[in-house]
Write a structure and sequence with these properties.
Helix content is about 55%, strand content about 25%. By secondary structure, the protein is an alpha+beta fold. The protein has 3 domains: about 130 residues, Beta-Lactamase, CATH 3.30.450; about 160 residues, Beta-Lactamase (2-Layer Sandwich); about 140 residues, 2-Layer Sandwich (Heat Shock Protein 90), CATH 3.30.565.
Length: about 525
């Protein structure tokens, strides 16, 4: 009797243990179920799992492990084998399939244990669907903030309208997972035309020309408010494409429409707000770009006008120089020769007559010198006949005749420079040397003229008293300011660069660089 009593006591203890085990399992918040490792059949589950998957105990008890895991059979079997080999395993993130076919994200741990005298797999999972949804929301928000920051950087880095719009459309498409983004603008006939687009080739044929899309574009333009629409694929059943049209407006009017095509999330307020913010930035950027481009056109027109004026001025210089050379200078030279011959043949007897004749000879000789100087200043014939290097060499000889110590380095090669460059550099040399004579109080000057594969460089440096470049040129006269402006204008017309370096008592240098590729 005592043995039977002991057996009953053991059974009662086992029953109470199973009851306690079942109670603990039911109270656990995690999703738990037991699986036969051989057949993969489900042997039990707690209420938390049944609620999460929306199954009754009877229905769930007739299912297998493959019905629960939303993964392929090979992957499930590989995971189960790993558990059997190790005794327990953390599978990490997996997905369970619910009764309605949707899935939930779970973090799974599996252990092999003994239950009712046999080995079963105990699968414990924590539902992380909400956490992953929150992570995805946070990731999306972060992407949006980064996109807005990137858009701001684009707007601050360029004023090229095409680059701005193309990159903004790419940002919209990437961040919001859109199929296509389009900016349409009114043409001269008042019709909306595609101006820039990204991904438009991914839309099905004539999707943008569906009545719903065309109506949304027109309403967004006329009513100045966003328009949501949905398109049904003409050939694929239950295949839809959502669209959103937003007006692109400046302060005074709407001048275009932003079209976005993609998932149904376009109907959400957050998505529309992001698109609206980017559309607003695009509108401001386009307006600034238009103003910048218009300013550029005006500057180009002004530059063309200045170029024509300088060209006309240069042609007038050439004409006057040749007229002076061919008429006044020749007449003065001939008069001087005739007077010299007259003086030799008919020398006056009276002292006063000889003095008068000598004075007349000096005046005529001075006229010849002045004519030649005027010709040199206007347009030396050597510039047309011999080129820039020889003409500058003549200027150097004149400086040496005036008592200056001149170092002249020239490396222009055998070929001639383009006329525009030779003319510009000659006048800059002239103006630089004129300023040196007037203001530098120097007796030594260095001139460098060098041609490189892509540019020509020129420098005039004196070793005189110098000046403070940053100081306002209050002592300079109108001619000096005009001379500097003229040099800058000539260099600017050739896309070149001019730099003036000077310090008190350390001399002054004028450096000019002019590109050759664009000119040639």
């Amino acid at each position: 009797m005592s043995g039977l009593s002991e057996h009953k006591k053991a059974e009662e203890v086992l029953r109470q243990s199973d009851a306690l085990y079942g109670t603990v399992i039911e109270q656990v918040a995690g999703n738990i179920f037991l699986v036969d490792p051989d057949t993969r059949e489900i042997r039990g589950a707690n209420d938390a799992l049944l609620r999460a998957l929306d199954y009754t105990p009877e229905k769930f008890g007739r299912m297998t492990l493959y019905d629960v895991f939303a993964h392929d059979k090979v992957s499930v079997d590989r995971s189960m084998q790993r558990v059997m080999d190790r005794g327990s395993c953390h599978l990490g993130e997996r997905q369970y399939r619910r009764k309605d076919g949707t899935v939930i994200d779970v973090d799974v741990n599996i252990s092999a244990l003994h239950h009712d005298g046999r080995t079963v797999l105990c699968i414990v999972a924590h539902n992380i669907t909400e956490r992953k949804r929150d992570e995805e929301t946070l990731r999306h928000s972060l992407n949006v903030l980064l996109a807005l920051r990137e858009a701001g950087q684009i707007l601050g880095s360029t004023l090229e309208s095409e680059e701005i719009v193309s990159r903004l459309l790419e940002i919209m498409q990437r961040v919001l997972n859109l199929t296509a983004t389009v900016i349409s603008m009114d043409d001269e006939n008042g019709r909306l035309r595609v101006w820039r687009s990204v991904g438009i080739e991914e839309l099905w044929d004539r999707a943008r020309y569906a009545p719903e899309a065309e109506m949304a574009r027109r309403r967004a333009l006329v009513r100045e408010e966003q328009q949501f629409f949905q398109l049904r694929h003409p050939e694929i059943e239950n295949h839809y494409l959502s669209g959103l049209c937003l007006p692109i407006r400046t302060r005074d009017h709407v001048f275009g429409v932003l079209e976005a095509y993609g998932p149904s999330s376009l109907a959400e307020n957050e998505t529309a707000e992001v698109l609206g913010s980017l559309a607003s930035q695009a509108a401001s950027a386009l307006q600034n770009a238009r103003l910048y481009e218009e300013l550029g056109k005006r500057e180009r027109r002004l530059q063309d006008l200045v170029g024509k004026l300088l060209g006309a001025q240069e042609e007038e210089r050439r004409r006057v120089a040749y007229e002076v050379h061919d008429s006044l200078a020749q007449i003065a030279a001939a008069a001087h020769q005739h007077l010299q011959a007259f003086a030799r043949r008919y020398s006056p007897d009276a002292e006063r007559g000889r003095r008068d004749l000598d004075r007349i000879l000096r005046l005529v000789r001075a006229t010849v010198s002045d004519a030649r100087r005027i010709i040199a200043n206007l347009r030396p014939t050597a510039l047309d006949d011999l080129g820039l290097a020889a003409t500058v060499a003549l200027e150097v000889e004149r400086l040496r005749e005036e008592g200056y110590q001149v170092d002249y380095e020239e490396d222009l090669g055998d070929g001639r420079l383009p006329d525009t460059i030779e003319i510009a550099l000659f006048h800059i040399v002239q103006e630089s040397l004129t300023n040196m004579r007037k203001h530098a109080q120097a007796r030594r000057v260095r001139i460098t003229l060098r041609r490189q594969p892509e540019e020509v460089r020129f420098e005039v440096r004196d070793f005189g008293r110098g000046f403070d470049v940053a100081a306002s040129p209050t002592n300079s006269g109108p001619g000096e300011r005009v001379g500097l402006v003229g040099m800058q204008e000539r260099v600017g017309l050739l896309d070149g660069k001019i730099e003036i370096h000077s310090h008190p008592n350390l001399g002054t240098s004028v450096e000019v660089t002019i590109p050759l590729i664009r000119i040639q």
